[in-house]
Specification:
The chain is of the alpha+beta class and 380 residues long. The chain has a single domain, classed as 4-Layer Sandwich (Double-stranded beta-helix), CATH 3.60.130. The strands form five sheets. Strands 1, 2, 3, 4, 5, 6, 8, 19 and 21 form a nine-stranded mixed sheet that branches. Strands 13-12-16-17 form a four-stranded antiparallel sheet. Strand 4 and strand 5 form a beta hairpin. The longest helix has 14 residues. The radius of gyration is 20 Å and the shape is globular. About 6% of the residues have low confidence. The structure holds fe (ii) ion. Fe (ii) ion (FE2) binds next to loops. The site of fe (ii) ion has 3 residues, from loops. It holds the Pfam family TauD.
Length: 380
């Protein structure tokens, strides 16, 4: 591959957008990244949070894994890399990994005849119907969609949130767009490409808060439920504790209907593995603070004076009020996937969501990689 000088070009926000993150990097061979080039990529990532590399159709799963791991060289994988072999990967309905690079997962929609050594398998794009309390009527499903679930890629029990995630678009259905509805009493909508990945900046989410709210998130910590999700299935965020619960229509956290599983129905809980994390995570390059809360998995709030807010409905209301302004349309970057796009994102500086309602014959094939981090996020 002919490699030109590496360039970093910020993404131009579409009209009406107020996004202040996202950049495209050109002039790099991702199979052979020098230390100097990696330093430029890393610096760009922590300034722009979402980095797009175009025309990466031929990047190997190994190079994708190595790029991901370079952000946290001592990181182990989520635990499935060693245990999910090729055979299990084929049989497992919700977890496909590249047999020769099991840290790299295969996600998407539709029937795939053959890919990276896997034959004849079915992928299913998550649909909000399976998670939200109510859903868009079936006869409107072709034209309208929602944010499926805003989240950070993280197990949130025992393991630390990955530093970065890489997503490669191998196959993308072309042309179709949908109207995304918030359906929360606001009249907010967005025109989005089918199957976009939506991102918002945690730093912007923090900046949008009032001074009193900023002080609250600076001094409070968030406790996550034990076993909120199955860490083997992190990619599909297969939830355990919250599996019977339903999402708000914005995909930003759950309704409180007392449906969460009691401790007796969960795997054994090791209290030392419960995660109590700062609400604000510090950018390792710029020092800026990002409001980073995985809204679906929250359980308690720990205040500066030692008080603990245990009432789940109240915890959810407080966090929703803090996060909702930051997902309004002007602050959302909806990536318009083209085949060969490799997106690298700062998993500790953005929230993201799957979007879109596919027909079964609309084939989408992606590769994703992220690794549980060595270190916990650093607070203010
Ligand atoms: Fe994700």
């Amino acid at each position: 591959m002919a490699v030109l000088p590496l360039t970093v070009k910020p993404i131009q926000p579409p009209s009406g957008s107020k996004i202040d993150f996202g950049a495209q990097i050109d002039g790099i061979d991702l199979e052979n990244i020098s230390d100097e080039q990696f330093a430029t990529i890393r610096n760009a990532l922590y300034h722009h949070h979402v980095i797009v590399f175009k025309n990466q159709d031929s990047i190997s799963p190994k190079a994708q894994y190595e790029l991901t791991k370079r952000f946290d060289p001592a990181a182990d994988n989520y635990g499935h890399g060693k245990t999910i072999d090729a055979k299990r990967s084929i049989l497992h309905p919700d977890l496909k990994t590249v047999p020769h690079q099991p840290q790299v997962q295969i996600i998407g929609n539709g029937f795939i005849k053959s890919y990276e050594g896997l034959e004849n398998f079915q992928l299913r794009h998550p649909h909000h119907r399976t998670f939200h309390k109510d859903h868009i009527p079936d006869d409107k499903d072709y034209d309208f969609t929602r944010f499926y679930r805003w989240h950070i890629d993280a197990a949130l029990y025992d393991l630390n949130p990955p530093q970065v995630t890489t997503l490669l678009a191998v196959q993308v259905p072309k042309g179709r767009r949908q109207t995304l509805l918030y359906d929360d009493g606001s009249d907010e909508t967005m025109d989005v490409p089918l199957g976009t990945t939506a991102f918002v900046s945690g730093e912007r989410m923090f900046e949008l808060l009032s001074p009193a709210e900023q002080e609250f998130v600076r001094t409070s910590k968030i406790e996550y439920a034990p076993h909120p999700q199955d860490k083997k299935l992190i990619i599909r965020a297969s939830y355990i504790w919250m599996s019977p619960a339903h999402s708000r229509s914005t995909g930003l956290g759950l309704h409180t209907e007392n449906l969460e599983l009691p401790a007796s129905d969960l795997p054994p809980i090791d209290a030392s593995k419960i995660k109590i994390l700062p609400m604000l995570w510090k950018n390792p390059v710029t020092g800026k603070l990002a409001l980073q809360i995985h809204p679906s998995a929250i359980r308690r709030i720990h205040l500066a004076d030692g008080t603990v807010i245990d009432d789940l409905a109240r915890v959810r209301e407080i966090v929703y009020k803090l996060q909702r302004p930051g997902i309004s349309p002007p602050y959302v970057y909806a990536h318009d996937w083209e085949e060969g796009d490799l997106v690298l994102f700062n998993n500790r500086g953005v929230l993201h969501s799957v979007v879109g309602a596919f027909r079964p014959d609309e084939v989408r094939l992606f590769r994703q990689c992220n690794l549980a981090a060595v270190e916990e996020p650093v607070g203010p």
